[in-house]
Amino acid sequence: xxxxxxxxxxxxxxxxxxxxxxxxxxxxTFSITMFIGLLSFMSGLNDLLDGLILNRTPHIRLxxxxxASGKQPVDLAAEYNGYYNFxxxxxxxxxxxxxxxxxxxxxxxxxDAAVSGVAPKIVAQVFYNIGVVSLTGIINGIDPQEENRLFxxxxxxxxxxxxDLIHVPNSIILGKGVAxxxxxxxxxxIQITTPKGARIQLKVVGYFESGLQEIDKIQSYxxxxxxxxxxxxxxxxxxxxxxxxxxxxxxxxxxxxxxxLFDVDAIDIQTANSQYETGSSIRSLIxxxxxxxxxxxxGFGIYNILNMMxxxxxxxxxxxKATGFSGRxxxxxxxxxxxxxxxxxxxxGLAFGFGLSVIIDHIPFNTPSLPTIKxxxxxxxxxxxxIGGMFSVxxxxxxxxxxxxxxxxxxxxxxxRGK
Amino acid sequence: MxxxxxxxKNIYKSFQDPVEIPVLIDISLSINQGEFISVIGKxxxxxxxxxxxxxxxxxxxxxxLLIEGERMRGKSEAELAIVRxxxxxxxxxxxxxxxxxxxxxxxxxxxxxxxxxxxREIEDRSYEKLKMLGIEKEAxxxxxxxxxxxxxxxxxxxxxxxxxxxxxxxEPTGNLDKKNSDIVFETFQELATQFGQTLLIVTHDxxxxxxxxxxxEMQDGRIVKG
Lengths: 419, 226
Ligand SMILES: Nc1ncnc2c1ncn2[C@@H]1O[C@H](COP(=O)(O)OP(=O)(O)O)[C@@H](O)[C@H]1O
Ligand SMILES: [Mg+2]
Description:
- The complex is a heterodimer.
- Chain A is an alpha+beta fold.
- Helices cover 56% and strands 16% of the residues of chain A.
- Chain A has two domains: 3-54 and 276-418, no CATH class; 94-271, no CATH class.
- Chain A contains 17 helices and ten strands.
- In chain A, a hairpin with a 5-residue loop joins β6 (189-193) and β7.
- The longest helix of chain B has 18 residues, at 178-195.
- Chain B is 36% helix and 28% strand.
- Chain B is globular and about 50 Å long.
- In chain B, the strands form two sheets. Chain B has a six-stranded mixed beta sheet, sandwiched between helices. Chain B has a four-stranded antiparallel beta sheet with strand order 2-1-4-5, with helices on one face.
- Chains A and B meet through α1, α14, α15 and α17 of A and α2 and α3 of B.
- Adenosine-5'-diphosphate binds at residues 15, 17, 23, 41, 43-49 of chain B.
């Protein structure tokens, strides 16, 4: 069959009613534009909010939790074996938070094919001394290079240079909130007290702004060596091992394995931050529903224009059938009209949607809690353009389906007899 | 004796309105290659209905219709469309030209659908048909810029484009004045005599009928003469 002839006829019918056709196409364009704009923006927002947590959170964290032992002495006693033993008010024993044998553990993890990076860390409780006032706080002892490679540390260091932690002895990067309370500028020397009572002076080399004010009021960063020194620990002391995986979804499974293998506690990112997943999926759901609703409305526009066209073109359909076009040919002509409205309107919509995204991407968006963000976030993923394009073709095809079928079933005799 | 190209055997058709009203009763006829036949009869006697059945557009009848010896019963809608496209040209009382296309393109459409020749050749052939009917000057106009007589001649050219086995007309001059009717009639006459075209034309014009080779007269759904 000659599709080009059917397309030719479709085009002629379409151009004869180009104003209405254009209105129908604009409906599709509008909905696809909104669909792309909305999804790109929402997804950008999701990435941003997820990034707040996910970028900086290890996929698996190994640590030693303070908790009561699962096996109490009575469970080990042979004569009470086979009984149910109830022990009330169990207390944890004095166990250090250090991870023992961390050097071989890190070496083993680094050779694991599923792991993309490992960074050791020390979490140290301290007091920031401001005159006579002491504020509780936390100093994270980190390997600045690894921390930056795995968790984009420098994005959050808003003043100073994170590498000074390595180059300047006894240096600290203060949380922005801590620095404000201590009135500490870069280059100043501050004093902290450790839980054991040692007083130590540290030089401020930068500010840290995570975007979460609660964190910035408490946490600061120092190198591992400095932290070990202020805690009075040896140079093998670390409390956490942060692991980044190649595939984030494997985290829960691997966390369980490492827990057994290394006899430590392990928490995966999914367990630690389950609320963020929920927020993201609900935002996507809302965007998709709005986009699809708009498309359905546009679909009705196409349905209307086609019905009107068929009503007007009864005579033409009758003569086409009388001169040898089959019902199927007529069906194809009207389906082609519907699809070309969808493809034309959809393609324009994709282009405008991209334009809208670019515009949103340039709207200034400054918030003190998000230091690295200067404009509204947009995710330019090709995925949304593919989905938008597919949806526009699909809806217009469905909108054209019933009118086209109706046209294909028109009985030429009844039309011709009516004249 | 030339060959039979179209034949009916005991065709019966009725409408349910609301009781059964027979419209075609026991129609048996044969049409030979090159015949110029007119069909006459009072209004409502079933002439149009007969033509719709013979042209394969109406399939709701009893009896047999054979075109070139081939049974039409049992063919699918798409197969019948092909039969109409290849073998039957139809001219109605109304011209049914598509205003979206030029006169030339209107004539070309059934030819393009058949696809026997290249588009370029179909265009030449369409132009020839228009020339034969004396309206080649109007080829590039839109149908709505033409007079009634001209439109009807375009419709005839369209019916002729695939060199059909038979051209059927349902009161093709019914909407035309005397002068245009004469032109259209002469056109048919010329097609019959010069090109040996088989024609089956319904008319209420007895003068027209008298000038054809053979006249079929109908009365209340039956063929009473011819
Ligand atoms: N769809 C229909 N339903 C019922 N009766 C019909 C229908 N179409 C035609 N008829 C009847 O069939 C008869 C023949 O009609 P027609 O073939 O148009 O006659 P003619 O063309 O000879 O004037 C008429 O009596 C007409 O009323
Ligand atoms: Mg009639």
